[in-house]
């Protein structure tokens, strides 16, 4: 499975979501059916995100290391791969080099 390369017929929110002093930046896109995704960049560093809704993180380019809350193991993801995060939880994500590009889908 590869990450999407474009989305058609969407509304793009111009105001960026900026986290961790600009080391993680995303923009929201809104679909006609009411669903939402974010498209973003993660610069080198280690960050923790909490989730309200379940999420799917699709890696478009670059690479990251992820540890889901409550799990001891870590996993590496690169362009074309994804990981799912349960609702009401969180994850640590680390980028060691370059920029990791992602699409985050909010599930359910």
Attribute tags:
56% strand, four-stranded antiparallel beta sheet, seven-stranded antiparallel beta sheet, 108 residues, mainly beta, 0% helix, Jelly Rolls
What does this structure look like?
The chain has 108 residues and is mainly beta. It has one domain (11-107): Jelly Rolls, CATH 2.60.120. Helices cover 0% and strands 56% of the residues. The protein contains no helices and eleven strands. A hairpin with a 6-residue loop joins strand 7 (63-68) and strand 8 (75-78).
Quick summary of this structure?
It contains no helices and eleven strands.
Amount of beta strand: over 45%
Mean pLDDT: 95
Counting DSSP E segments of at least 2 residues, the number of strands comes to: 11
Termini gap:
21 Å
Please bin the fraction of helical residues.
under 10%
Write the layout of secondary structure elements.
Layout: E1 11-12, E2 17-19, E3 24-30, E4 36-42, E5 45-50, E6 54-61, E7 63-68, E8 75-78, E9 82-85, E10 90-95, E11 100-107
Antiparallel strand pairs: 1-3, 2-3, 3-4, 4-11, 5-10, 6-9, 6-11, 7-8, 7-10
């Amino acid at each position: 499975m590869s990450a999407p390369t474009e989305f058609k017929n969407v509304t793009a929110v111009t105001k960026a979501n900026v986290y961790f002093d600009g080391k993680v930046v995303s923009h929201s896109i809104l679909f006609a059916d009411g669903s939402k995704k974010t498209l973003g960049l993660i610069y080198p560093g280690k960050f923790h995100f909490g989730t309200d809704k379940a999420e799917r993180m699709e890696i478009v380019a670059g690479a990251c290391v992820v540890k889901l809350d409550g799990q001891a193991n870590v996993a590496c993801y690169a362009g074309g791969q994804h990981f799912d995060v349960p609702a009401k939880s969180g994850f640590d994500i680390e980028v060691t080099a370059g920029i990791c590009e992602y699409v985050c889908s909010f599930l359910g």
